[in-house]
Amino acid sequence: MKDLYKKIVQTFDKEEIKQLYLDKNIPPVEFIDLYAEQDVIPEWFEAHHYPALLFGWSVNHSVTPAVADITIHLCYEQLHDTSNLGTNTELALKFFEFIEITDNILKKIETKHTGKLNLVTEENKIAETVVDTYTLRYQCSYTKTKASQNENLRGKIDDISIKKGLFSKLLD
């Protein structure tokens, strides 16, 4: 997961990625961190720059290859009225474009231990949060290391060749 997190940080730090947002008059991702409920803790609200991308994960090792569930919390300050009575609803709804751009970027990221991210679910977080949050959930294949890939290899016992006399040589 460390490699995936670092790759996400490196990707969103690139000028050409930031420009994708700026071309549509949308602020690019300013802050990236591991998810620790920053969106629900008021004391941390002022500590971050928004928009923010918070990275969470879980891994299911009971299947082969293992499957990683990646949760991206997109935090943004919604300072405009999104209602039908709002005076500048188009500007207020720019966060939809922010989500779409971010999703398109994330879907292209993969590492030597993770496959490409496949979007599974997305939702507007309506629980009590300090800042508006939109959640994207992805799945991808996950392998820790080459050694862990070979850990549960299967085969037939008939395919194993056995050398005779090894035990007696051990006693000599």
Descriptive report:
- The chain is α+β, with helices and mostly antiparallel strands and 172 residues long.
- The protein has one domain: STM4215-like (2-Layer Sandwich), CATH 3.30.2000.
- 30% of the residues lie in helices and 25% in strands.
- It has seven helices and five strands, in the order H-H-E-H-E-E-H-H-E-E-H-H.
- The protein has helices at residues 2-13, 15-22, 42-45, 89-92, 94-106, 146-150, 166-171, and strands at 31-34, 52-60, 66-76, 118-125, 132-142.
- It has a five-stranded mixed β-sheet with strand order 1-2-3-5-4.
- A hairpin with a 5-residue loop joins strand 2 (52-60) and strand 3 (66-76).
- The termini are far apart.
- The mean pLDDT is 84.
Order of helices and strands: HHEHEEHHEEHH
What gross morphology would you assign? elongated
Q: Calculate Rg over CA atoms.
A: 23 Å
* DSSP, total strands: 5
Helical fraction equals 25-40%
Which percent band covers the strand fraction?
Answer: 25-35%
Mean pLDDT: 84
Q: Please state how the strands of the largest beta sheet are arranged side by side.
A: 1-2-3-5-4
Largest sheet: 5 strands, mixed
Poorly predicted regions: none
Q: What's the total helix number? A: 7
User: What is the CATH topology classification name?
Assistant: STM4215-like
Q: What structural category do the secondary elements indicate? A: alpha+beta
Quickly count the domains. Answer: 1
Please identify the top-level CATH class: Alpha Beta
- Alpha-carbon distance between the termini? 49 Å
The CATH architecture comes to 2-Layer Sandwich
